[in-house]
Here is the input.
Amino acid sequence: MKDIIQLLPDKIANQIAAGEVVQRPASVVKELLENAIDAQASYIQVIIKDAGKALIQVIDNGMGMSETDARLSFERHATSKLRTTEDLFSIKTKGFRGEALASIAAIAQVEMKTRREHDELGHVICIEGSELKKQELISFPVGTSLAVKNIFYNVPARRNFLKSNPVEMRHIIEEFQRVALAHPQVSFTLFQNDLEVYQLKPGKLSQRIVGLFGKNHQQQLVPCAEETTQLKISGYIGKPESSKKTRGEQYFFVNDRFIRSNYLNHAVMNAYEGLLADGHYPFYTLFIEIDPTHIDVNVHPTKTEIKFDDERTIYGIIRATVKQALGTHNITPSLDFESDVNFEAIINVPRPQGATSREERAYGQMKNLGLRKQQVEHWEKLYEKSIDESNIDLTKELPSLTMDSAVNRRSEPVFSGKTIMQVHGKYIVAPVKSGLMWVDFQAAYERIFYEKYLKCLTQRSGASQQLLFPQTVSMNPADFTLVMDLKEEIEALGFAFETFGSSDFVINGVPTDASSQEPKELFEGLVEQIKHYSNDLAANHQEQLARSMAKRIAAIPDRSLDAAEMAGLIDQLFGCQHPNYAPDGRRTHLIMDTNQIENLFNN
Here is the structure.
């Protein structure tokens, strides 16, 4: 009997390894940017085409490589920084020319050009699918250029899993922002399809934050600093009034490496306790300097998760430092963006003596709760009794909710408003044949508007209400790029807008359903919702846009509805294709049958 175990060919092994390192174009951007930083570059240029699917090119003025190093960097397990096992636990660099290049070259067409300062000529290497195609001498400036073309060209199944260009570009910009934040002393530029997205000059961290996220942050930053025997903390947090309803602008860096940590994020949120509106999240960019022997960075393939040997103490120090900064921000002088920020007032405060009892409480992990879906058929039977008991004419519709459905074409309304009532400005209660029906009209609005705007996006039929006085909206480069990528779809919702300058929009019209809302807040809120929903892999970008718009339109304060409005809402809810659930999975209504009501009294 023949042996059945054999070694994989290098080409296949590299493609398997690429599955861990290269999840999407943003993964390539991250690796190449970190390589350029480790090469001691002071200037880095990033060129993106077709959201990285066609081209990702990173050009730096770093130290460059010799012919031998350039070729070896594409071999598996090639590295310039590890020599012994102990080196694994004292890593301070990010990944110099080799840890990921073999994986990238396995699923793309890669061209490297590089030259060292004392070499007269540079070298070019072309590799496609792990196969060397060309290697020769060329004339090239000092530094390195790496061009990655046609990612996943030889793994079509992986390429098909990539999301739309706006989503992929957003992930690229996120990786770019993280590296640029960690290294404000380095100059960065980013081009997308020959359009400049960012041009960041070297400077202080405060200047880099403003350059990345917009001028609005200039008056919102609060310096945050502390130094203990265990670690050093520095950076900025946002004032509570500048918080947003979506996550995204929260950054932790440990030894200049971006990390994700729900535990440390909880420490920051705990410090903001009582200062934030419900569902709002603050801005923060915090740097932690710690002895590498006290952390383990090799717990995740992308090294975005690390382990600390004393998490409780770090939690307590971060919470106390942020709380101290928040307590003094009202008397802190405004930031001078032309001179160094003075941290003395913060550095000299008493240092925490460790975590308090509150900080030592167990930190519960958030878990996704599966939503049980169910179908309700023949719903009209619920209302037979109420319809028979009422003679009120409720043919009046909510004008902003008119939908072309079978329900809306009835000669008489489905439900009578005679017995409907509103509870606490949030619920509609009505008797039905089997008991009582409770409707969450916020969730109901979201379902109705979601299906309406999904139809608008499909048919490009959104109606617009022109503004008497157009309004200007300023956005950071990342959000500006996102809006431009989705311009046709956003206009299909009913917005009318045009560009003004390099990062501003002029809003000339809004959807007719939103004519009573503040145009600027509506537009900015829509962008925030788009970013919030863009990570939902189960929804395409049209569904994400429809959900985002529905959420913004339905986000109205608690208000009283008259009988006709309540009846019209129920009528149109059950005219939807899926009336039972809001787009985010919340139930729109529930039925309490008479047995349940009787049990409440009997028990």
